[in-house]
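Limitations

Structures in this collection are predictions, not experimental determinations, and the ligand pose is part of the prediction. Treat each record accordingly. The example that follows, with flavin-adenine dinucleotide as the small molecule, is included so readers can see exactly what is and is not provided: the inputs are given verbatim, and the output is the predicted complex.
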Amino acid sequence: KSCHQIGKDAENRIGPHLNSLFGRRAGTVEGYRYSKGLQRRGNDGMVWTFENLDAYIENPKALVSDTRMNFAGVGDATDRADLLAYLRQFSANPQNIPEAPRTAMATDHELDPAILAIQGDPAYGEYLSGECVTCHQRDGDDAGIPSITNWPAEDFVVALHAYKTGLRPHPVMEMLARRLSNEEIAALAAYFKTIE
Amino acid sequence: GAAHGRPRAVVIGGGAGGATAARYIAKDSNGEIDVILIEPTRVYYTCFFSNLYIGGFREMQSLAHSYGTLASDYGINVIHDWATGVDRDARTVALAGGGSLPYDRLILSPGMDFVDGSVPGWDIGQQNRMPHAYKAGSQTELLKAQVMAMPEGGTFAMVAPPNPFRCPPGPYERVSMVAHLLKQTNPTAKILIVDPMENFSKQALFEEGWQKHYGGMVQRIGPDFGGDKVEVRPDAMEVVIDGTVEKVDVCNVIPAQKAGRICEEAGLNDGNWAPVIPHTMQSRADENIHVLGDASAQGDMPKSGFSANSQAKVAAMAVRGALTGSSVFPAKFTNTCWSLIDTEDGVKVGASYEATDEKIASTDSFVSQTGEDAALRKTTFEESLGWYDGITSDMFG
Ligand SMILES: Cc1cc2nc3c(=O)[nH]c(=O)nc-3n(C[C@H](O)[C@H](O)[C@H](O)COP(=O)(O)OP(=O)(O)OC[C@H]3O[C@@H](n4cnc5c(N)ncnc54)[C@H](O)[C@@H]3O)c2cc1C
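Predicted complex:
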């Protein structure tokens, strides 16, 4: 891969080196400048596992909306399983990392297209947004808490579902997303995308 | 009702609950509702982050907010005066400056007042010798100045309040911030908490943090050792704990609390607080009045700025629905309270809530864990900075 190096003498290139990836805390390779989002996932305690790597490689934005890994993703579950099996060999102690059964790996994290197709009602979204703007500033300031205004609706929906399912760890956002219905998430996405 | 064209909503108290409610009603009704906000002070100092001022992490000016934008950008009529009474039959509010204002809906968010006599020996006349600093501003500055002036190796005492009180982690965050300050200015000083309660909010997190950062400085006397049998002698600067006299240098008395006095005057209280209907925050005693924030008895939500802000949005929607027929959606509430233990060592606790007929009921919750690493604690602290900017612009525009 031209973006990443792996193996003996691997260095950071466009992306960080991928040695000893399993069990490594996200966003922690010395000397590499990560996106804010990936750094946050690491600060929140996210450690790379089969499950979240699989999701990240499938759709990098599901895990990190502003990720600098500009990469469409690997759609095929079997291809991802092969890739992860390959990466696993470059761990300090591969034998200690359980080899995921291929059948278990072949799950898709991709959101059901029906969920992405829901047309959100921005007026309802505006009402619901009252709960969000106590923390996320309406003017888009992102000090301490990320900005969620003016996002493409799809990224917004994907991000909230990632919290809802626990793929992205964050106690506040997981709790709030858990009680939002698919329609409510679509409504919020429709509202926030219109705010400059 | 109001004797003119537009329906009128009057809001008493321009704090976390009242300012938010006024702003949301005005913003979302596009001028269809005449919104009046009654608030005696021209500058609101947030209690939230006032402990950080004591610790040296915030300037007092950064806690100050004015009502100018609510007037200029939202068309809210801001009246700087005290409401002294509510005539519920005539639906009018009396003002200290004279005159009375008719309303169609009234929102009360007056915060809390202290229960007279709850700490024997203390009354509001003693608040200079023994500050509460539980309403922010001059009291907070006074308390900090007293801590800075403590003799070397002196004792800071806190008389903690019984439940329920505003901001459950507040007293313990304050202890953390006083310890942080003393560690730099007066490292041999002692902190003594006299506490009527068995347990307190985020206890394991605070105790771990005090041990780690301020080892040995903080001592707490709970009810099993007389923490609930306390008397103070402001003239002698003494605290008497179950008969034992302690000489102290600073004494922060946080008395027991009740709904802001105007609720009692309006006849809305049952005991010390004003019960409300969870779906709309309407008073159980009067459907034309909504009570928000600290003053309300609502169920499971802690008395916090976050809670008051969350309740205000539900009430604002209900008021608009009643006065203009706009759509009303099911009530939802949330709360998160961050606390700072030491530099970049932030923790949080929070929950989500729904309205049942009986009370606002908690549906889900989380709390920071002991043993979290520095990166997570720093991120948590930074979140609280973002939240402060978020909630204050949500209140004041
Ligand atoms: C040290 C400390 C730390 C805190 N930290 C946090 C925190 O980190 N997070 C958090 O969410 N909460 C925190 N809180 C709690 C928070 O400040 C309160 O819960 C919140 O302010 C309650 O909002 P409210 O609208 O009920 O009352 P307030 O915000 O107190 O507003 C009441 C307003 O009503 C006015 N008023 C009263 N009576 C009348 C009258 N008769 N006529 C006209 N106006 C009147 C008052 O002048 C006041 O401005 C903290 C509190 C303290 C003391």
